[in-house]
Structures are given as structure tokens and as C-alpha cells.
Amino acid sequence: MTHRSRRLGLGGLAATLLLSLGLTALPSPAAAAETYAAYLMAHFTGESASGEQIYFSTSTDGLRWTDLNYSQPVLRSNVGELGVRDPSIVRSPAGDRFFLLATDLRIASGKGWDAAQHAGSTSLVVWESTDLVTWSAPRLVGVAGGISGAGCAWAPEAIWDPAAGNYLVYWATISPRNGVDKARIWYSRTTDFRTFTAAQPYIDRPGSQGIIDTQILEIPGSVGGYRYIRASGDGQISIEGSNQLLSGWTRLGDISHLGMTGAQVEGPILHQYNGRNEWGLWVDQYASGRGYLPLTSTNLAATSTYRVRATSEYSLGASHKRHGSIIGITQAQYDRLRAKWGSGTARRVQSFNFTDRYVRHANFDARIDPNVSPLADSQWRLVPGLANSASGYVSFESVNFPGYYLRHSNYDFALVRGDGSAQFAADATFRQVAGLADASAVSFQSYNNTSRYLRHYNYLLRLDPISTATERSDATFRLITS
């Protein structure tokens, strides 16, 4: 057998092994390393009504952050427990796809922490995207369902394993094992985040000590002597190093010398600063409720080099940032994110003849109300029309339900998730014209029913023909900067 035929034989063997595991073909490596010019942080904000969803923030220096989408969620889970925490963004080795993994959990529903730990979801929530702005619908993947007595699947992360040719996916599950019921880190493997191998134990601390919130970072050039560094919450924020993913891990220290243990902080984020040998370790100050705190180092393997950044050196933006992840992004990706969910000004649509009332959504119905709470239910992004992006045509995208638009159906209005169809686009597009009751205000003519306009009737939104003075007033609005 020639050298070439040996390689083909090994490749065939690898393919056979992957098929036997139920996995798909390996992704091709990136043609060239991308140059990262900025950063993206995915996070949640807390146990408020919308806090357990996916939020994005961007930064050009990795320290000063700007919230996207007016500090409202950019993605919402409509599967499982209808809430998500601890998001992690994973870039494919080819750089052409992103996966967003999150804990399927919504404490705001009132279920309580004991039930969440011991009788919670054993699935993860997964989205995927090719450009960071257009994401698939969320899906549940039951990674921990085969673990005996599993009560949860928390804080999922994934890293590409070049030695195995697939992703190592790992998370924390609380379950009884060897007579001890506690949190351990488990792992599975996948190539597509749809089909996973059976869960296997990964990290188990001695005795009754549990472990959660593990994150692994590959270190280019093995600075400090290790190819991989991982941080975990196990009573401390413990730092470990290894040159392979599944074994050989050495404990390097923790951050207790900085006055921080697992009693004060959790949810460590590891990332490299763009274009230099400097790394960040962000820790969530959950005990004090102050959100993330950045530590930096030029050698993550030496915990004595970690330093806490002064409050004057960083800014976290308007939203409260809880357990998440940070990745480097290109200038083009940064520009697309800002264009899609820029931090510009949201609009409120004020009734012309009931000036204390604003167009809002409530349980996905559309109406005008006073004293809207939460305010974001009455905030809109007026985006170029979905069916006609020419000047003067607009669609109303919800700020706190991104991807949902005001749409008419049978002349009634509702807040509906965009489905990409031509019919949806036409139903959700309007021509902005001079106000029918006052030319200094605005009215909105239907794109596909041009004899009808958006108006309110008994405080509900309708699409009606307009002829009387009352109807003209009902179909007139003012756009207010919120």
C-alpha cells in the first residue's frame, strides 16, 4: 500500500467511525486565519421577565461594552422552559458557522432552585448562524437524558477537538454517582450539534465537592506551557492546564489571593485579546449582584500574574451582564451586528387623538395603551419594509421580541415572528405617508391592501379603509424617540 493509499484508508476508517457514532462529515479547516477587530459578548441579565434570554453586546477594545438592541434580548427561546441562561458562542474551525448553546432554564417562572437542580431540564438549547445576525429557530438537544438520576444540564460549552475531528461539548449535571449526589462536568461529542454521543463523566472533584461553570480556552503557541487552559467553579475559581482535552490536566491555582472565591464569583469567561498575548478572565460577581468583573493576564498558566482591572478601565454598558461568553469578531461581523441591532434610538408610536396611549404588543396582540409596562412592549425598530425596502416603506420590528413584526391578518393586527415568506413580508410592510388628520404627523398605508391604513378602534389595531374625520384621527400617529 502506497503512502497516499494509506492516508485514504485512514480517512475511510475515520469516516466509518464517525458514521458508527451517528456523526456527519468533518468540517474543512479555515482557508486563512481571520483578523479580529472587535468582540461580541453573549449573556443573560437575571431572573426578570425577559432577563433569561439571549443578549448581545459589542466592544472594540474588549473592555468597554455597548449593548445591542436597546439593551433588550436579541434571541428568545420558545422551546423547553421558555428561558435560557449561560450562553456560549462556538465558532466552527472553518470560521463559516456559529453555534450558540445555552442552559434550558427559566427561574423567573417561579419553579425554584431546588426543582431546577434536581428536577429540571436535561436538554440544552441550540441556535446556529453563518453570520451572527441571522439565527435558526432554537432547538432542544437532550444531552443529559441518559445520565442516571440527572436533574439538570447547566452552563454548556464546546470546543473543537482537532485530534478527534469533532466538538467536545461539556456541561454540569447534578446527579447521584458513587453514592454522592452533586454537580459534575459531563461531556459528549458532535460534529453538527444535532447528533451527540452518549454522555460521559469528564470532571469529578473529590468527596462532596461539586463543580460547575467550566470553560476551556485553546492558547495559541501554548503560552505558559499548556495548549489548553480551563477555569471552573468548584468552591474556588480553579485554573487548570493541559496539552490535551480529556486528560493530563494540572491544577495551576485559583484567584483567592485576589479576594475572590466561589462564594463571591462564578461563571468565568476566558478569551484572548485581539492581536496580542493578553488574555481576559471575567468573573460574574453574583453574590454582590454587580455583574462581570474583568481580570487580565499575559500568562493564564501563572495565576500570580492576574490583575483586576480598575473600574475606570472598563464599562459594561446599560444591561446587567450575567454568565456568558466572549469571542473575537471581524470588522465586517461587527458592522453587521451594529447594523442589525444597533444601539440607536428606538421609536414609540403615539396615538394622535389619544396622546397618552402608544402602540404596543400584549400577549402578542396589538393595541394602544397608556402607562405601558414594561416600556419595551411599546418600543419599535422602524426597519426598511420587508416587502419593499425603498424609501418610505417600513416594517415595525419589536425591540424586546426581535424578529417579531406587526402583521395584519383578516384586517386584525398581531405581533408575529417573521417566517421569511413573501406573504408575511407583504402583510408586515407599510408606506409611511403624511398624517391623514395632520400632515405634521404620520399614517401607515398597507403595502398589499392599499385602500386600507393602520388605525385603532376600541384601542385595538385594525387595518381599515378611512373616510370619516374620526377614522382619519384614528389612523394618525406621531413617532416619538424613546
UniProtKB/TrEMBL annotation:
Signal peptide: 1-32
MF annotations from Gene Ontology: alpha-L-arabinofuranosidase activity
Any Gene Ontology biological process: L-arabinose metabolic process
InterPro entries: AbfB_ABD, AbfB_ABD_sf, GH43_arabinanases, Glyco_hydro_beta-prop_sf, TAT_signal
SUPFAM superfamilies: AbfB domain (SSF110221), Arabinanase/levansucrase/invertase (SSF75005)
PROSITE patterns assigned to the protein according to its UniProt record, in alphabetical order: TAT
Superkingdom as given in the UniProt entry: Bacteria
Gene3D superfamilies membership: 2.80.10.50, Glycosyl hydrolase domain, family 43
Start and end residues of each Alpha-L-arabinofuranosidase B arabinose-binding domain: 348-478
Keywords: Signal
Name of the protein: Alpha-L-arabinofuranosidase B arabinose-binding domain-containing protein
Origin species: Catellatospora coxensis
Upper lineage: Bacteria, Bacillati, Actinomycetota, Actinomycetes, Micromonosporales
